[in-house]
Amino acid sequence: MWKLLKIELFKIFRRPRTYIAFAAIAAIITLIQLAFYSDGEAFLQFGMQSLKETFDINGKIVNGYLVCYVILQTLLIHVPLLIALIAGDAVAGEANMGTLRLLLTKPVSRSQFMWTKFMATVIYTLLLLVFMAALALFLSVSIFGTSDLIILKSETIVILDRHDILWRYFGAFGFAAIAMTTVASLAFLLSVFAENSIGPIVATMSIVILFTILTTMDIPFFNAIKPFLFTNHMLNWKGFFEEPVNYREVLKSATILIGHIVFFVFTAIAIFKKKDILS
Amino acid sequence: MSAIINVHHLSKQFGEISAVSNLSFSVKKGEVYGFLGQNGAGKSTTIRMLLTLIRPTEGDIEILGLNLRKHRKQILRQTGAIIEKPDLYKYLTAMENLRLFAAMSGVKIPGKRYAEQMEMVGLTERADSKVKTFSQGMKQRLGIAIALVHDPQLIILDEPTNGLDPQGIADVRNLILHLSKDLGKTVFVSSHLLNEIEQIADSMLIIDKGKKMAEGKVTDLFNPLDTIVELETGDNNDALEKLKQSAWKDYIQEYDSKKILVKLGKEDIPSFARQLIQMNIEIHSLSGRHSLEDYFLTLTTANKHVETFKN
Amino acid sequence: MKTIQILFVIICTHSFPQFCFSQSEAALIKGVKNKLDKVNNYQADGVMTIDVSFIKVPPSAVKVYYKKPDKFNVKKDGGISILPKGSASVNLNSIISGENYTIVPAGNTVLENSTVRIIKLLPNDENSDVVVTSLYIDEKKLLIRKSVITTKESGTYEIEMAYGKYSEWGLPDKVIFIFNTKDYKLPKGVTFEYESGEKKPKTANSENKKGKVEIAYSSYIINKGVPDSYFK
User: In this prediction, does ipTM exceed 0.95?
Assistant: First the structure.
């Protein structure tokens, strides 16, 4: 299996399309850092307005931890779309290229083939997140320094002591890995049904966008269904920035996301095992 | 000779459509087995079932004496294949494609074999070029190299001469003969180039609409020396009556108001012509056709398409 | 004669209490001010705890700086400190600095088992933001135990002080600052929050919400100098 995994990773990282996501992430992060560097205070004006009417806030509000938080908040809405680019291509891309029929005449079981494909997709996702962490967290901290982290939520403001933040980011990135893998597994499942990767990529993106809109709209009718949307649970990386951390909720969301992953992947494998390869 | 492939009552249903119906055949070790059928006859479906790409609706397949369903990996380690046109990773080089697929073959391959394969198919100088720069013929040759790199016992080739120039076609033909005659490999080859199959195949199978029409040794099914003679006369009905009462009555294959088809050995044609004159049959046209093509056309519904085209 | 003098004093003190006691209020204020004036500057270490319904922040170590007459700053080293607006009023000296106010006595009361005098200060300046300052003063120790400041713009603040080893300097061990808070809300479409599906308990009417900031001082460095840069 390790040999097959190496082959899959070789194929992924030899393909130019793979690097689009890395480039996009680097561009977005750089732009956000540039925006904060040139006028970070103005960037925060909207959220801090009502707070500054009642309070005097002293200290370095714009710091590496805050910049990283804003980057995560932006990127973790958009990174799923980039992951769909690779995961949606996993099986459908091979069918489209015509290589699927040759691969499946090799002495590799279909289950092994699918697990290897999925593992390669997960590794790609994790590498993307490590890259994001390096740029978003470590680069931001080196540019902007550290201070307490002020988080503006809809009804509360949380201020976290600077010595109490780094471990939270490790937790958040770990949780984000599960969240992104959920999107990858959905795209992976849809990839099984198509012989062209555009279909599964667009379908995954559409589902993620639709569910994200439903998740973020503050309408009572939609609030009832939010707990059932995986995009809602994907947001619970923010749970690590509560004080105190509600581990029960974070674990609950993580479990639900892992449940989604298991369901999507096992369904994909079960369908693929019985599929006639006509491409 | 023992059978390398044994297929029993193989069927495949796609919804309402019966792509392959109750197909049984046997391929002996070391022979070149030709698989003929017009487009849509079920050749690709059959080949895909042999390679586990498609699940049969019914039937059993044994390869190398093992049940395909139960011993898939073991069988595929000993099998190399090209299915339709060989599609490869365009963004990788020829050598990278060869090594990648070789690594999945489940067989340990000595390092020098890759260069040998490239040389065998005439791609040594282009080994480090990306496949997207290759012509169809070059891709076909690379596909053959990939099919053979792990030295399989059974080679399944679906239209291997597609896109090749006459020299390329001749090279593939010689390669197949070399694999079979010199190296004892079994080659299962499908093609629509009848003359190619005729030149290399020891046995063959003809299918039409998913059903077996004929199977057997090439020499048993038809004599390559036989010719189908097409006779046009002034009065075909009269000519037919006379021929039915003559020594040639068993040679009549087909007839209608416009022509009479008679199957003759090449050496019999002159005496047949003399007999026609002696029988006072007014000859308007007497011409010979290739026997395998006619044999094929008589067996398959392709004949109807030919007549339609002619008319 | 002696009897008449005694009677006169009694009639004076009971018939004209304002005239007689106003002298002692002013003296009391002066006494407190003199005590506070001993402090020209200080640096203090403390722990600040914020108790506001919509702010979650752990208690944090802060440094408090003061320089006469009215420079005051609270800083968290390497972090963010958050204080209600007008928090300069936490500084006692600024409450009673200057003399441009009218002193009005308001009787006595008991605060934590000790009797305190209530004295109201009404600014003479009509443009002053402060409407009235009520001081609850421990007469014996010349310490302000509590002040209630009503302002035009920011409503009413309360400051409660507890004293210990620095009482001789008039510097408290603990200050609790109580103030009005405005409702805080941001659209969820901007904050992208996780929805747990649990119903949140209804909060009380925000108009009556109060917030509390407490600073517990552990040590003071008094009159050793504080650079002006510490107040930027």
Answer: no
